[in-house]
Amino acid sequence: SGRDGWMADAPEGPKDQGLGPLFDLVLKHVPPAHVDDAPFRMLGTLLEANPFLGRIITGRISSGSVRPNQSIKVMDREGNLVETGRVSKILAFRGIERQPIEVGEAGDIVSIAGLVKGSVADTFCDPSVNTPIQAQPIDPPTVTMSFIVNDSPLAGTEGDKVTSRMIRDRLFKEAEGNVTLKIEESDDKDSFFVSGRGELQLAILIETMRREGFELAVSRPRVVYSAGPNGETLEPVEEVVIDVDEEYSGTVVQKMSERRAEMIEMRPSGGNRQRLVFHAPTRGLIGYQSELLTDTRGTAIMNRLFKAYEPHKGEIPSRTNGVLISNEAGEAVAYALWNLEDRGPMIIEPGWKVYQGMLVGIHNRDNDLEVNVLKGKKLTNIRTTSKDEAVRLTPPIRMTLERSLAWIQDDELVEVTPKSIRLRKRWLDPNERKRNERKSISEMV
Questions:
Q1: Which of 102, 114, 308, 325 is most enclosed, with most CB atoms within 10 A?
Q2: For residue range 49-63, what is the model confidence (pLDDT) as tens digits?
Q3: What SS3 class is residue 40?
């Protein structure tokens, strides 16, 4: 019946009344919504931006009614006035379409346009109302990244949106409809600080922008610290719930312990699976999602929830290997990559375009090494009985966007274009890199 679109009181029918009998039962047995005659109040639940109507807030009207051109005010969770204004338009869903309506009454779910500062968890109400509706607080941003105009030698070759103005407009447009994002302009006009709830949210934004044709460079994710009442450093801590097969639970506990996580609970969750609950610092969780899936062969499920700001948990082990850096610009040659395999695994393939300062591999040691990936095999006119063997390369490491963001260091960037993801040093010139390295060491001393 669901497939054919009919409903009846008996299996044999009738089958020609559509879903009318079902709606009659709903009207008969479901009690009407409780209507409060108090002045208009609505809790903002969803935020979106419309190019024609501007900021739109969606929520359920708790009491009273609202009409277009009506004066209302907005209060935050503590009852402080955010703004006052007039409702320009009221929209409501009719079926699968959202249409303008003349009045919204208690119990209706409506969208209101005309206010420029109201947000999620704010109370939209009549000017006579002084008590806000209770609402859950919005989790603060815990991770920040720098979005930088792409200044590499290959800038502008794969994307058509490369200027700082285009990037700025796109970021602020995203923030209008996403309450969890915070955009700040830096002293450098070519970079912006973007803060969110986690590296995954920011990675999704980056991936969306690259598919829209943007080129940009992004820095390593950093946590947003806070200062305690006595001046101590506080960092965001999250509650992490991981469901994993029993055979992998030991590996998960070990990896989380290395990331300064504290295990709170461990219990069976059915089907030979364990549920592990941790309190872990946010900086220890950066890049762990992909590592968890690798360790558990894709069987683990991880959920995260912001808990609180707590005292700093101590140092967390970071990358121990250096990198192989290209010292020339051109196309990578298979023979050169083959000769460099003893130095460490590669992250590029033959034929890739490289430039000075671009990362091409992972060094086996803890220091960085500049290499030439353009050097081909010297040919001679001397013939011998032995023939040349074809060069066989070890497959390179695939650096996805998420893996790249978690792997790079503070002096490195991820270059993101519609067609490529490249890793590079922040300062491409080797002399400039050395000067900045000496400067950072002197500042630490």
A1: 325
A2: 888 888 899 999 999
A3: coil
